[in-house]
Amino acid sequence: AAAQEAPNPAFNAFACPKTLALCGERMPLENQDVFEMLDREFTVLVWDHGRVFMLLKRAARYFPFIEKALRDAGMPDDLKYLAVAESSLIPYARSSSGALGPWQFITETGQRKGLRKDQSVDERMALERSTEAAILYLTQLKAMFGSWSLAMAAYNCGENRVQKEITEQKVADYYRLNLPTETERYLYRIAAIKIIMENPRRYGYMLPEEHLYRPVKFDTVTVNISNPIHITDLAQAIGTDFKVIKELNPELLGYYLPTGQYTLKVPAGSGRNALATLAQLNQGAPVAAQPNNNPSGATSNPSRGVYVVQPGDTLTRISTITGVPVERLKALNGLPDSHLEVGQKLKLAP
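Given the sequence above, the corresponding structure tokens read:
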């Protein structure tokens, strides 16, 4: 008889963890059905080599900002894996239902959470603004349902659907509820992403540092545009291309800068030149802020110690603009929660 061939070690199975917490909440993996749901998502993902390598590469670029935003808002770090499950960290990701951007907002939900969408701009694709909106939405969902598992389920299928199922089934536990198939798999997908991305080497993913995608360096300027300005005119004046400006600001939809006051990213080192150019192109309209040369891309906004809340503002966005941490803003202004009113004046210093 022919000698039996040794099994190919490349196909040895990886064991799914028997214990796991997601957003600080223990998953009941002693329940065989729950374990098998997680094992399914884990097994599918751990062998999807191309996707996992790309997730690890992109995470090196986008996680630093998302992690800081979650930390500043007092949110669980594990929520960054929700963004991975939603979009694979692709700013332009679009679902068949029209959800768009790194956090996959549909138009209606995005607008309810302060994201601008019109013919010239769609902030669902802006990492900073969509992250602020996602944090706001998840905070509200957690307050509504009392657990992160149900909050994440509601993020997937909507708070009305989750509330309906809780009422009908008289159970307020994600792992005991009968939910839409996609939603029933949703938390397990997020958990599988966490398992592998927290310890990729354990599962055979050896990625040298030089292969990771580093955060893009840029300056951020706050502008107030009242007249049509072609993006190419700005790009040529500061020594770059239309394509560069568009890729730094994926929320820009057309060939012209949108009107209004907002932040704009330009190549690192070109912030002051961009402000001068925009002032000239905008026929001398005042500019609201000076550029920030912070390589992390965080916006700074020199002020006189007071910030007036604008439509769509959140504490996280104001923190990004002013450089004052969220908890500091709350303490300075006696804010018990994240609720803000348009026109409200916030102290930025004692």
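The mean pLDDT is 88. Try to locate this feature in the token string yourself.
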